[in-house]
Amino acid sequence: MKHSIRTRFTLIFISLMAGAIVILWGANSWWLEGYYMSEKVKDLEQAYIQVDNLLAVQRAAGTDIADEFEKNREARLKGGPVEEGPMGKLMRSLNESSNISMVIMSDSAVVLSNEREGDYLSERFLRNILGQNKQPFEVVSKTDHYTIQQSFDPSIKSYYLECWGFFSDDSTTFIMSMPVASIRESAALSNRFLAYIGMVVLAIGSTVIFFTTKRITMPILMLTHLAERMSNLDFDAHYTGNETDEIGVLGHSMNALSDRLRDTIGELKTANLQLQRDIEEKIQIDEMRKEFVANVSHELKTPIALIQGYAEGLTEGMAEDPESRDYYCEVIMDEANKMNKMVKQLLTLSALESGNDAPVMERFDLTELIRGVVTSAQILISQKAVSVEFQRDAPCYVWADEFKIEEVVMNYLNNAINHADGERRIVITLQENGGEVCVSVFNTGNHIPEEDLPNLWTKFYKVDKARTRAYGGSGIGLSIVKAIMDSHQKQCGVENVDGGVRFWFTLDCSRG
Fold it and tell me: Which GO terms describe its cellular component (predicted)?
């Protein structure tokens, strides 16, 4: 196997060890010197802060370091013991802890020093402040009160850090110096040692990992081989390992699975597919039947009750005069017509939803179709006292089922006529956009509640049940529109606009 799991495990562990060694080597080579110098600079900065704070305390107490220097000088002249003051103790502590030599001066005269060669440091300070330092140096840090620089002393061939300047009282000057070890040589030596140790560790670790991963990955390779044979429908392969861990349990489970698949895979596939089809078909039929029975029962309840009531009234002689009998018969016939219309709509919707009434695509003039629908509805338009505006004269050819699109336009127009209010205006427009045309039917009147908009396309859904009942609506018309547009794989919708409601649908244009 070209990239076996054993090889990958080995390479991963070796890469991790090699990476750790390289990171350590790189850290020593690139960052150790900078880190060392930054720590030394911090030591000088901290020393400056400590001495400056002590000077401030002494000034506040009315004492001066010159007094401490004078006491020490008199003690030395008399040959008596020299008693260190607070500043002397601090300077000695800095020399012992950080190897910092320091001279504090006033008017360029040494006042206090923790270095025997204080005059030498004072001379260096004067050269720095006068710009006469001839030794090579590099400024490391600089503030308003002090400068820290790295210098090289050719006489001893060694680097040292110097901090010189003024304390915060702007009258007391100082110079601090500390040697800097040759960290580059130390880092190079450390890297050579690290390289030797790293190669030894890498060699030993690689050998150990190689043989260890063999024991770990062997059962996995066996399971891989078993799975490959099972994928080729070879169920005679079995796992032969004796492990009691999770891999062993997995291997024996795969053996059991192989045995079962060998006996049942053929008939199981056939039975499963057939069962799935039967279940889906049964669920679909049951849901459709329940929904259909519930909706139809609800919709037929009112007209049947009316027909029964008026028929009983005729039978029992409640309509004594011919005018009353004619009214009773008219109500019965009207309700029967409503039921007949609803049944036809249900049959149409059922055929559309089942896919048995696929659209017959043809090229026709949509403008002429809309004009014909408006003309056929003139009687209803006059009865409802509404005005219909459709001002397009230019033809607009589309590809669709002309009969079904006529039903869509008729449903939209009837819906607008029955719900027009206020100015009682209906405006039909065609708007071409690229390869599509959008037909919209707008009617003035009240807006449809936003929460009802998504449900308008559901069978038997009515926003205003009393109003829908008054004009003979069943709540199926818009469901038929949605089914027709879905069969054409085109869009339809409704939206509240200024002054009323707009229904729309789209079709593909036919140029030329």
Answer: plasma membrane
Give the Cα separation of 235 and 266 in Å (integer): 13
The pTM (predicted TM-score) of the whole model is 0.41
**Rounded Cα–Cα distance for residues 198 and 22 (Å):** 9
The encoded tokens of residue 300 equal 């037929």
Q: Is residue 132 part of a domain?
A: yes
In a domain, 252, yes or no: no
Written as six digits, the tokens of 159 are 């680097």
pLDDT at 428: 94
- 55-94 pLDDT tens trace: 888 888 877 766 666 666 666 566 656 566 788 788 888 8
Q: Which residues pair with 164 in a beta bridge?
A: 147, 175
Contacts of 222 (CB under 8 A, 6+ apart): 239, 240, 241, 251
Which burial class, exposed, middle or buried, applies to 416 when counting CB atoms under 10 A from its CB (0-12, 13-18, 19+)? buried
Side chain identity at residue 251, one-letter code: G
- The DSSP output letter for 421 is -
State residue 50's pLDDT score. Answer: 92
**Residues of the chain whose pLDDT is less than 50?**
1, 108, 465-472
Question: Contact, 503 vs 494, CB < 8 A?
Answer: yes
Provide the H-helix boundaries in 421-471.
465-470
* 235/263 Cα distance (integer angstroms): 10
At residue 117, the 3 state secondary structure works out as coil
Residues 6+ apart with CB under 8 A from 6: 213, 214, 217, 221
What pLDDT, on the 0 to 100 scale, is given for residue 194? 76
Tokens 């004594």 found at: 320
| Domain's final residue, options 171, 186, 201 | 186
**Exposed, middle or buried: residue 121 (CB in 10 Å: 0-12, 13-18, 19+)?**
buried
Judge residue 493's burial from the number of C-beta atoms within 10 Å of its C-beta, 0-12 exposed, 13-18 middle, 19 or more buried: middle
Which of 162, 186, 210 lies at the terminal end of a domain, its last residue? 186
CA distances, 40 to each of 26, 43, 145, 471 (Å):
21, 5, 19, 97
Of 431, 436, 445, 423, which Cα lies nearest the Cα of 502?
A: 445
Domain around 443: 358-509
The per-residue pLDDT for range 317-360, each reduced to its tens digit, is 776 777 777 777 877 786 677 677 667 766 766 666 666 678 88
Residues in Cβ contact with 80 at an 8 Å cutoff, skipping those fewer than 6 apart = none
What type of residue sits at position 322? P
Is residue 288, in this structure, part of any structural domain at all?
no
